[in-house]
Hints:
The complex is a heterodimer of chains A (165) and B (273). In chain A, a hairpin with a 2-residue loop joins strand 1 and strand 2. Chain A has 5 helices and 5 strands, in the order ββαβββαααα. Chain A has 165 residues and is α+β, with helices and mostly antiparallel strands. The longest helix of chain A is centred in the C-terminal third of the chain and has 14 residues, at 110-123. Chain B has 3 domains: 7-53, Uridine Diphospho-n-acetylenolpyruvylglucosamine Reductase, domain 2 (2-Layer Sandwich), CATH 3.30.43.10; 63-174, Uridine Diphospho-n-acetylenolpyruvylglucosamine Reductase, domain 3, CATH 3.30.465; 181-268, 2-Layer Sandwich (Enolase-like, domain 1), CATH 3.30.390.50. Chain B has helices at 14-24, 37-42, 78-83, 85-90, 92-98, 104-109, 112-118, 124-131, 150-153, 218-225, 230-234, 251-269, and strands at residues 7-10, 28-31, 50-53, 63-66, 69-73, 135-140, 145-149, 154-156, 159-160, 166-174, 181-186, 196-201, 204-208, 215-216. In chain B, strands 4-5-10-6-7 form a 5-stranded antiparallel sheet. The radius of gyration of chain B is 19 Å and the shape is globular. At the A-B interface, strand 4 and helix 3 of A face helix 2 and helix 6 of B. Bound molecules: flavin-adenine dinucleotide and FE2/S2 (inorganic) cluster (2 copies). One FE2/S2 (inorganic) cluster binds next to loops of chain A. Flavin-adenine dinucleotide (FAD) sits between chains B (29-37, 39, 74, 101-102, 106, 109-111, 113-115, 117-118, 123-125, 167-168, 193) and A (49-50, 67).
Amino acid sequence: MSTQEWTxxxxxxxxxxxxxxxxxxxxxxxxxLREQLRLTGTHIGCDTSNCGACTVILDGAxxxxxxxxxxxAHGHEVTTVEGLSGPFDGLSAVQEGFxxxxxxxxxxxxxxxxxxxxxxxxxxxxxxxxQVRHALEGNICRCTGYEMIxxxxxxxxxxxxxxxx
Amino acid sequence: MIPAxxxxxxxxxxxxxxxxxxxxxxxxxxxAGGHSLLPLMKLRLATPAVLIDISGISGMDTxxxxxxxxxxxxxxxHRTLELSDLVAREAPLLGHVAGLVGDPQVRxxxxxxxxxxxxxxxxxxxxxLVALDGVVGLRSVTGAQREVRAEEFFTGFWSSVMxxxxxxxHFRIPRTGSAGWAYEKYTARAQDWATVAVACVAGRxxxxxxxxxxxxxxxxxxxxxxxxxxxxxxxxxHEGTNPSGDLRASAEYRAHLATVLxxxxxxxxxxxx
Lengths: 165, 273
Ligand SMILES: Cc1cc2nc3c(=O)[nH]c(=O)nc-3n(C[C@H](O)[C@H](O)[C@H](O)COP(=O)(O)OP(=O)(O)OC[C@H]3O[C@@H](n4cnc5c(N)ncnc54)[C@H](O)[C@@H]3O)c2cc1C
Ligand code: FES
Ligand code: FES
């Protein structure tokens, strides 16, 4: 096989911008984002599909970008943590919620938590703390003990109208 | 971790997928949601030279009523089954179990066809499909189609009666409607494969992770049919099983879990009260 057969051009709409890059067929979406598009907000934690640090939103649904091939995202829309924004001094309600309720310590899991929480609230605008816990089952945090993360997501649900605290 | 190099090809029809399977033979694997295959490839436990991406085949990700059955396309994602009102009404066990697979991110990608083809004895949907007495619809490149009862589909750890030139196109699942059902999945962590799982629906009881395939608990079913209480019937749950011992649990503990979980599903399904 010639090297050409190992690569192809993919076009992905990332945070609203159409991006075309030549990738190896085996390139993972997370590597396209981090290494080729230099969007390093998306983290790699476990690299074994378990921790959720690499979570991005693909066509509206939270996915682990370490377990999706870049070629599988061809023609689709991806939102990363860099694409979040909103009325709280530029931050979205979820981002501001993590600030207000101190939903992080080291911050490593945070981009994944923000994306999984954003996907949750888009489907279920007012989840109970129990529902938040279930929705974040795919995201591991080694610092906070989750309590503050749950409160952060609840904060976002309560401030979805964008009214400043 | 990055998979070994491979060629990714997309196909738009079942015919193209099957033709590619024949063309590339042993070298090729079908790619659906990728949530069993890609982790294995990243660990280099699987090194296919060609991935035939079937996720773009249209019309294979829907659930429809077909007489007494639900017709479920092989590419239907766990998430779709979890949220489907039709599934909740006609085969509630299926929707409930789909909602317990992994975590939301996994359910957003994984498909029922991939889960059944992968044939992991600790996986949730294989156990549910056997309990529901579902049927696996297969097609080969010659155009030959066959339907295999889920109970006869699984032959061992990660193996089934599916031939290398076949693929799963659909499932036919009896509409169990209001028949009593329950599913118990014991996991050590919030998100994990079952240490032991037990499914019950319409008087059929099936154990997950108690052997190298999902296993019907025939002794339990018979005990219930002949009037035993749930507790009495559950004592026979381990009969004919062959659980392994591993980091999650010893074989003895699995046998104990099977008894406890069986009693719970029987009671919740309305049997042996
Ligand atoms: C973090 C994590 C947690 C998980 N937790 C659970 C859990 O708790 N319970 C559980 O049951 N599962 C769990 N899974 C597995 C998950 O359910 C997978 O989605 C599923 O097993 C495979 O489906 P897929 O569509 O992703 O298949 P793929 O990975 O694309 O394919 C799997 C295999 O099936 C073959 N295949 C796919 N589609 C077809 C078809 N139509 N016909 C023939 N062959 C086909 C492929 O060639 C491959 O060999 C987990 C996975 C991950 C990554
Ligand atoms: S890096 Fe993707 S799940 Fe951990
Ligand atoms: S804040 Fe450190 S891992 Fe979550």
